[in-house]
Write a structure and sequence with these properties.
Layout (H helix, E strand, L loop, with lengths): L6 H32 L2 H9 L5 H14 L5 H12 L1 H34 L2 H12 L1 H12 L5 H9 L5 H27 L3 H48 L1
Helix pairs in contact: 1-5, 3-4, 3-5, 4-5, 4-9, 5-8, 5-9, 7-9, 9-10
């Protein structure tokens, strides 16, 4: 007999579809304009500073919007933050905006999507994901995924919201992993504003190289981590079995 889908699940499906449609509409309608705006640092700086004392809130709001509309390149907003506020404050304000955006995405996705996971994902498969998230090794894997250039970090937060990961641990790991990239982007923006083009070009080249390497080898690296984790888990289970015998 087919599993009966309860009314709350139907409501969550409707809300999930509405949320996805909203993201699509925002992406189609505004992402191009935002992309053009933040790719012109002087124009973006004048627009943000025109809000006076509220300029920091406006910039943070742009960073939050970039996280929610994951198709907008986050590096552009972060470089613009360094261009406007300097390396350290640009990093700080970008980190605040990213954290708020991650919170919104994580809890919306968990609220709308998590009940669907329990209904449609087989129990054994769900348990495997649950064990992976709760294991100590998963912390390192999670850190590497968010630290490694070339991976869509914002989309990973959407995925994280669909798992039973502990929010505090999740956000602590990803914010620590994201800090070097945020600092690097803000550093580039700050030195572009100071017209230190050579230094900005060197750092940009280094980050682009890391991005390309991460993009090319991400699947192999992730695959090796999964194999290593599976072997260690198997050895642990064998050891437990021998002890019990």
């Amino acid at each position: 007999m087919a599993k009966k889908i309860e009314l709350p699940i139907v409501i969550n499906i409707i809300l999930l579809i509405g949320f996805i449609l909203l993201l699509v509409i925002l992406s189609v309608k505004y992402s191009n304009q935002i992309y053009q705006l933040i790719s012109e640092p002087d124009l973006f700086k004048d627009m943000v500073l025109a809000y006076g004392h509220a300029n920091i809130l406006i910039f943070i709001s742009f960073q939050v919007l970039q996280v929610i509309i994951a198709t907008i390149p986050g590096e552009l907003v972060q470089v613009a933050g360094g261009y406007i506020y300097g390396t350290w404050f640009g990093t700080l304000y970008s980190a605040i905006g990213i954290f708020i955006g991650y919170l919104i995405v994580f809890w919306l996705t968990r609220f709308l999507g998590y009940p669907l996971v329990k209904v449609f994902v087989p129990e054994k498969k769900f348990d495997k994901i649950n064990n992976l998230i709760k294991s100590k090794r998963s912390d390192a894997i999670l850190f590497i995924l968010f630290f490694l250039p070339g991976l869509p970090k914002d989309f990973l937060v959407y995925i994280g919201g669909l798992t039973p990961v502990e929010p505090l641990k999740f956000f602590l790991i990803i914010m620590l992993a994201r800090f070097p990239a945020l600092f690097g982007s803000s550093f580039i923006g700050a030195h572009l504003e100071q017209e230190n083009y050579l230094l900005a070009a060197i750092v940009t080249g280094l980050l682009v190289l890391l991005f390309i390497l991460g993009f090319l080898f991400r699947d192999k690296l992730i695959g090796k981590m999964e194999v290593l984790f599976a072997k260690q888990r198997t050895e642990k289970q064998k050891g437990s079995g021998e002890d019990s015998a």
